[in-house]
Amino acid sequence: MIERRTGPARTASVQPALSFWPGLTTAASLLAFAALWAVAARLWPSRAFPAPDEVWQVFLREAANGDLGFHLGMTLGRVAAAYIVSMVIGSAIGVFLGINRSADRFFNPWLILFLNIPALVIIVLAYIWFGLNEAAAVGAVAVNKIPNVAVTMREGARALDLRYADMSAVYRFGAFDRMRHVLLPQLQPYFAAASRSGIALIWKIVLVVELLGRSNGVGFQIHLYFQLFDVAAILAYTLAFVAVMLLIELLLVQPFERHATRWRKRSA
Questions:
Q1: Predicted confidence (pLDDT) per residue in 50-97, tens digit
Q2: Which of 234, 218, 246 is nearest to 49 (CA)?
Q3: What is the pTM of this model?
């Protein structure tokens, strides 16, 4: 007698095939974008609108002489430093304000003030007050991001379920266990949102910081090639850094988020 395969076996065999679709869709989308760009560049040839192959040649040249790797590394270092400082300080402030209503009422105008100060103003003031150095550059970027992180984490702290805190008190959890098993799992979605938006915002501000007061980095190179009207080089550095940030998103941010939320799948 021929035995008919049931649903679970069929699902297991189809699952590996489906796992390739997101990657294929992303690749197809990027290829379509490059093709559209190439066609537009051929229809309207201009020095201000180079074709993808011209940008690729500049990318290879800059990578070969080492300039691309050096400037990417400098920018990534500033992004990482500003990200760590802003997430640590902003998370601490946000959680404190979320669980302390009196402090929240007092410091809320401060948050609104810093949220609405333009990033350019903070960068210029940091360079005037502290000089054209790395501390001023990283500090200016962090100060721009800390209020955003604090607001997001404050909302997470406000949404904490107090029943879990009561349960931890009943079972006599220590401070570390309360943070690990009660506080952090509930704050994780808000931390992930602040982290993802933080990376996207920080690297854009870092480019402005480098353009105004640093002698290296992607922002400095973009400013240099802007003076030379070299659009191909500007696009090469821009797309190279965007590619690095996409890799960070795919290889670090998303896997960490899946790992942090694995407990939800187990409890579902």
A1: 888 888 998 999 999 888 889 999 999 999 999 999 999 998 999 899
A2: 234
A3: 0.77
Tokens of 84: 């760590």
Long-range contacts of 162-169 (CB under 8 A, 24+ apart): none
CA distances from 59 to 121, 168, 224, 250 (A): 33, 55, 16, 22
**204: helix, coil or strand?**
helix
What digits encode the pLDDT tens for the residues 209-235?
Answer: 998 888 888 999 999 999 888 899 999
Structure tokens at 268: 């579902």
Task: Annotate 123-158 with b (16+ C-beta within 10 A) or e (fewer).
Answer: beebbeeeeeeeebbbbbbbbbbbbbbbbbbbebbe
Residue range 65-267 in CATH 3.60.20.10: no
The H or E element spanning position 38 is helix 21-43
What Å distances lie between residue 39 and 32, 42, 57, 168, 181, CA to CA? 11, 5, 18, 62, 55
| Gap between the Cα atoms of 116 and 147, Å rounded | 10
